[in-house]
């Protein structure tokens, strides 16, 4: 972590001066600053930081990898830089391993570690940017798997009281790119660790079109093991999704919209090529990337804010874009998609 200007080193917490640069702490690479920042290495640090007089009355922003946020301006509050580390098998029974990882662990490194330790089950989620602590908030998912499928519990601290709270998977109220922490729990809890249940009766989850194609290309489509799936997921993501270290982005910028069956039937009559997935409740999920692509936005730019040229659902910072540029581009896309398809696209990352 780049750590200029520590202003004090207390018993344990490290505070950074006003004007702390957030560029390295958000995957869009926006060049904004925080009024105050504090590095959080432990739960004790977190409790100390939120009770510190310097934090009194200030809004707080928790940043893990900063992979799901659009920072449109300097942050006039306290940024908590989550640096809690550690991962361990907490218990094992006949059916599963229970593995806990601290909030500040890199998600992808954690996935790789579980596989190397012989505990498969997260391989479909390889290479997702961000940290373990951020993963449950938006219920990260890819290639037919979501955190919801593997999360046993989430440990968090309530900032108002400093109380440690354990949420089981049901309490987390996971939905598509959604959870309790994104709604009622927003700004109330800071996640400090997540425990995963990795079933020993492992089954490949290789049905997703891009993934099965990549497995076939590698001759691993018969009975792929977890490593083959991991390798194929990494290959697909590298081919389609921009690496935030090379080009700023926050993954999918919009959710795939879900519409009612009658609206879908009317749309399908006009647009028979539309990419759609029927849901268990009869509603229909549409591929937002396809809608945006059809509107001609793929690869187009508005100043330095652009639509990725290999996945239209991803907006990128070609260098020097601001959060406002990205939001202006997003609004232009939303207008075009609404005008042509009558469908509203909901933004996925949080803007501040
Ligand atoms: N498509 C196009 N043009 C595009 C992009 C997509 O025609 O420019 C079509 C594809 O051909 C495909 C369909 O749209 O038929 C879906 O595309 P893709 O398989 O790439 O997945 P997605 O629905 O666009 C979702 C997730 C991704 C996740 C992939 C794979 C959301 C918002 N996004 O994208 O998650 O990696 O599925 O499971 O649900 C993320 O959340 O940041 C993210 C990257």
UniProtKB/TrEMBL annotation:
Subcellular location, principal: cytoplasm
Domain FAD-binding PCMH-type: start-end pairs: 30-201
InterPro entries reported in the protein's UniProt record: FAD-bd_PCMH (IPR016166), FAD-bd_PCMH-like_sf (IPR036318), FAD-bd_PCMH_sub1 (IPR016167), FAD-bd_PCMH_sub2 (IPR016169), MurB (IPR003170), MurB_C (IPR011601), MurB_C_sf (IPR036635), Oxid_FAD_bind_N (IPR006094)
Cross-referenced Gene3D superfamilies: 3.30.465.10, UDP-N-acetylenolpyruvoylglucosamine reductase, C-terminal domain, Uridine Diphospho-n-acetylenolpyruvylglucosamine Reductase, domain 2
Cofactor requirement: FAD
Catalytic function, reaction form: UDP-N-acetyl-alpha-D-muramate + NADP(+) = UDP-N-acetyl-3-O-(1-carboxyvinyl)-alpha-D-glucosamine + NADPH + H(+)
Residue numbers annotated as active site: 177, 252, 348
Ranges in coiled-coil conformation: none
This enzyme's EC code(s): 1.3.1.98
Pathway(s) where this gene product acts: Cell wall biogenesis; peptidoglycan biosynthesis
Annotated localization: Cytoplasm
Keyword vocabulary terms for this entry: Cell cycle, Cell division, Cell shape, Cell wall biogenesis/degradation, Cytoplasm, FAD, Flavoprotein, NADP, Oxidoreductase, Peptidoglycan synthesis
SUPFAM superfamilies for this protein: FAD-binding/transporter-associated domain-like (SSF56176), Uridine diphospho-N-Acetylenolpyruvylglucosamine reductase, MurB, C-terminal domain (SSF56194)
An example molecular function term from Gene Ontology annotations: UDP-N-acetylmuramate dehydrogenase activity
Enzyme class: oxidoreductase
Homology family: Belongs to the MurB family.
Known role: Cell wall formation.
Annotated protein name in UniProt: UDP-N-acetylenolpyruvoylglucosamine reductase
Organism phylogeny: Bacteria, Pseudomonadati, Pseudomonadota, Betaproteobacteria, Burkholderiales
């Amino acid at each position: 972590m780049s750590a200029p200007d520590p202003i004090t080193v207390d018993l344990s917490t490290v505070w950074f001066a006003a004007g702390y640069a957030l560029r390295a702490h958000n995957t869009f690479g926006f060049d904004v600053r925080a009024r105050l920042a504090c590095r959080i290495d432990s739960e004790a640090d977190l409790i100390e930081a939120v009770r510190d007089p310097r934090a009194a009355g200030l809004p707080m922003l928790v940043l893990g990898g900063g992979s799901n946020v659009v920072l449109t301006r300097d942050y006039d509050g306290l940024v908590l830089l989550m640096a809690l580390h550690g991962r361990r098998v907490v218990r094992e029974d006949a059916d599963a391993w229970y593995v806990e990882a601290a909030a500040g662990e890199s998600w992808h490194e954690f996935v790789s570690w579980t596989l190397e330790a012989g505990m498969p089950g997260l391989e479909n989620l390889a290479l997702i940017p961000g940290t373990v602590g951020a993963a449950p908030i938006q219920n990260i998912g890819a290639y037919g798997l979501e955190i919801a499928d593997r999360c046993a519990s989430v440990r968090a601290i309530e900032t108002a009281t400093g109380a440690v709270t354990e949420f089981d998977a049901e309490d987390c109220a996971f939905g598509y790119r959604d959870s309790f922490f994104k709604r009622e729990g927003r700004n109330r809890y800071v996640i400090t660790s997540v425990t995963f249940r990795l079933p020993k009766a492992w089954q490949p989850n290789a049905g997703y079109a891009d993934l099965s194609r990549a497995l076939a290309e590698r001759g691993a489509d018969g009975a792929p093991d977890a490593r083959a799936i991991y390798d194929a997921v990494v290959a697909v993501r590298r081919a389609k999704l921009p690496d935030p270290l090379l080009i700023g982005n926050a993954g999918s910028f919009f959710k795939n919209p879900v519409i009612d069956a009658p609206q879908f039937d009317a749309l399908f009559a006009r647009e028979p090529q539309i990419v759609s997935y029927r849901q268990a409740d009869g509603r229909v999920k549409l591929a937002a990337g396809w809608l945006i692509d059809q509107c001609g936005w793929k690869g187009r730019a508005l100043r330095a804010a652009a639509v990725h040229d290999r996945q239209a659902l991803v907006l990128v910072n070609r260098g020097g874009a601001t959060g406002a540029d990205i939001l202006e581009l997003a609004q232009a896309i939303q207008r075009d998609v609404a005008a042509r398809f009558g469908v509203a696209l909901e933004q996925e990352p949080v803007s501040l």
